[in-house]
Design goal:
The chain is of the alpha/beta class and about 625 residues long. It is built from 20 helices and 30 strands. It has an eight-stranded mixed beta sheet with strand order 12-11-8-6-7-14-15-23, sandwiched between helices. A seven-stranded mixed beta sheet has the order 5-4-17-16-18-19-20, with helices on both faces. The mean pLDDT is about 95. It binds 5'-O-[(S)-butoxy(hydroxy)phosphoryl]adenosine (WT7).
Length: about 625
């Protein structure tokens, strides 16, 4: 492997990296036992992995102690969290000492509200420090956090509260978005009113982000800040078994119902620390900015756990990339001397459009590592980010992973792995990808296939909440002996991986996973719709956009488009709003009644020929009908 083209000094040399890879492959048990020493254990695990019991099974530890307490001796006055408010003049810095204190106070508040180890606590907050504090406060007392993305609709929130059995919710009166206010508390109220019998929420703690008033239900809702003031600044941590769930995080799959992915404590934390250090070349003094919302796994692993476990400094930004004007993000990097910047291809595509002169106005020389995640990045976006933001000086890590993997799986390692624009490059030491053909046979050399993983790794999800059988069916049974990722990939002659996208019915909109079935289930609740199909098509900014076909019942109302759109945004959320809704008389189906998505995709992309053999369709004529509807001037 050629040496790094970058002027920086990175932690790992190509030789050292190769030694890690070899060691992890040859002696996995020893390798992971070594890596487990990144953490402080109350009971050291006697074994790294065992198929029956998972990772570090007989170990015991506390997550918040690992993120905070154990740094106090050496880093008490170092910034752990820098919060940049939307208002440029407002910055809050929490040192490890003050963050520890805030976390303990909130943990005490949770205990005083009756929350016990193993209980689920939902967190529904905008990008304010309380989000990170709440996550760690839960872990302090062994409660399982369930962060709910701010963009979810009331119904989506309600479903997740019921499924997780949350006993308490931490929310905000509102979120700030420029001059707009996002009604967090009102959305939660609506969610709690939807299934009053089914949910188990006893208390709602409300963070006052602004002084906006909201309605408070006397026996249920409490403003958080007075409680925090009165709470003790110290809180004895709960000792937790390594395999205890640390958090649930809901994600979409090919079935309609979102799945509560369960991550464990010991294995997940080892993976968060290991991957953060390796992939982001973590060094003393780094300022780490991950732009993902804490409502997604990226915000969990790299917005909170990874950097704090490694004694780093996290930057959290409340605002948007281009508010109040273009260049806001670059301004934040300049002001806080960000060294490590982790974002999404979607954001890069949008920022690219603002033009190069915007970026050039800022001093971005503090940057050392740039990272992307969530979707394949194009060569063009990769080069723009690398050249104009990174000034050609930075390491670039295109990181492939997923909610279920807990942390990064395939990615360059700065200084050690030669990058190729738009390739996620090589698996991290200890990760073993395979490409399979349709029959599940591994393919060797340069090839393309279904991306699976051989063996386990510490960050792997434990199960799906309330549905262990679904976990088996989704990830372990499709290709026996392997973990099925849902993605397809190509491997080139250098062994580099190029992710080609989902092979299941999951649509990736701006890096957010949305299941076709989730949208179709939402549409099924609209009585005027007989059936529907949702598919993803390429979209310049979002990566993929959603197109839906709806078949009306006989007496279709005139406002069917509107009703369809509303069914989706109210059941799923604003982020799932479709680009196009086509009202059609029928869908192309096989004789056994299965919609043929391949055809629906082609038609939605404006293709008019090359559909192949249509004779297997129940009604081959339908293809021409759909084409004429989609091509008709609107
Ligand atoms: C899916 C996982 C991992 C945190 C963000 C998304 C796609 C992820 C890449 C990448 C190409 C990528 C895959 C994956 N994906 N990273 N670097 N290149 N595709 O987490 O919501 O669980 O989605 O995102 O399709 O399966 P997620």
């Amino acid at each position: 492997m050629s040496s790094s083209p970058h002027p920086h000094t990175f932690r790992l040399s190509p030789v050292a990296y190769e030694a890690l890879t070899d060691h992890a492959a040859a002696e996995p048990e020893l390798y992971w036992e070594g890596e487990s020493r990144r953490l402080n254990w109350n009971a050291e695990p006697s074994q790294a992995y065992c198929e029956k019991q998972g990772w570090f099974a007989d170990g015991a530890l506390n997550a918040s102690v690992n993120c905070l307490d154990r740094h106090l001796a050496t880093r008490a006055d170092q910034a752990a969290l820098i919060w940049q408010a939307e208002d440029a003049d407002r910055v809050l810095t929490f040192t490890y000492q003050t963050l520890h204190e805030q976390v303990c106070r909130l943990a005490n508040v949770l205990r005083s509200q009756g929350v016990q180890a193993g209980d689920r606590v939902a967190i529904h907050l905008p990008s304010v420090p309380e989000g990170l504090i709440a996550m760690l406060a839960c872990t302090r007392i062994g409660a399982i956090h369930v962060v709910l993305f701010g963009g979810f609709s009331a119904e989506a929130i309600a479903d997740r509260l019921v499924d997780s059995g949350a006993v308490l919710v931490i929310t905000a009166n509102v979120g700030r978005r420029g001059a707009k206010r996002i009604a967090f508390k009102t959305a939660l109220d609506a969610a709690l009113d939807l299934h009053p019998e089914a949910h188990t929420v006893r208390h709602v703690l409300v963070v006052s982000v602004t002084d906006d008033d909201v309605s408070m239900q006397a026996d249920r809702d409490i403003w958080l800040s007075p409680l925090l003031k009165d709470a003790a600044p110290d809180c004895a941590p709960q000792d937790m078994p390594s395999s205890a769930p640390l958090f649930l995080l809901y994600t979409s799959g090919s079935t309609g119902k979102p799945k509560g992915i369960v991550h464990g404590t010991g294995g997940y934390l080892v993976w968060a620390s290991y991957t953060h250090e390796l992939v982001f070349d973590h060094q003393e003094g780094d300022i780490f900015w991950c732009t993902a919302d804490i409502g997604w796994i990226t915000g969990h692993t790299y917005g909170v756990y990874g950097p704090l476990l490694n004694g780093g400094t996290v930057l959290l930004f409340e605002g948007m990339p281009s508010h109040p004007g273009p260049g806001r993000w670059w301004n934040v990097i300049q002001d806080h001397k960000v060294t490590t910047f982790y974002t999404s291809p979607t954001a890069i595509r949008a920022l690219m459009r603002e033009g190069n002169d915007v970026v050039q106005r800022y001093d971005l020389s503090s940057l050392r590592v740039l990272g992307t995640v969530g979707e394949p990045i194009s060569h063009e976006a990769w080069s723009w980010f690398n050249d104009h933001v990174g000034g050609g000086r930075c390491a670039f890590v295109d990181t492939w992973w997923q909610t279920e993997s807990g942390g990064i799986m395939i990615s360059p390692v700065p200084g050690a792995v030669r990058e190729k624009p738009a390739s996620a490059t090589l698996p991290l030491p200890g990760v073993h990808p395979v490409l399979l053909d349709e029959r599940g046979t591994p393919k060797g050399g340069a090839t393309e296939g279904v991306l699976c993983l051989k063996g386990s790794w510490p960050g792997r999800a434990l199960t799906i909440w309330n549905d262990a059988a679904l976990f088996e069916r989704t990830y372990l049974q499709p290709y026996p002996g392997y973990y099925f990722t849902g993605d397809g990939a190509r491997r080139d002659e250098d062994g580099y991986y190029w992710i080609t996208g989902r092979v299941d019915d999951v649509i990736n909109v701006s890096g957010h996973r949305i299941g076709s079935a989730e949208i179709e289930d939402a549409l099924a609740t609209e009585l005027a719709i007989a059936e529907s199909a949702a598919i993803g098509i390429p979209h310049d900014l979002k990566g993929q956009g959603i197109v839906v076909y709806v078949v009306p019942r006989d007496d279709a109302p005139d406002d069917l488009h509107l009703r369809a759109a509303k069914a989706i945004t109210s059941k799923v959320g604003r982020y799932a709003a479709p680009e196009h809704i086509h009202v059609v008389p029928d869908l192309p189906k096989t004789r056994s009644g299965k919609s043929v998505r391949r055809l629906l995709r082609k038609i939605a992309c404006g293709e008019t020929e090359g559909f192949g053999d249509l004779s297997t369709l129940a009604d081959p004529e339908i293809v021409a009908t759909l084409i004429s509807i989609i091509q008709a001037p609107k």
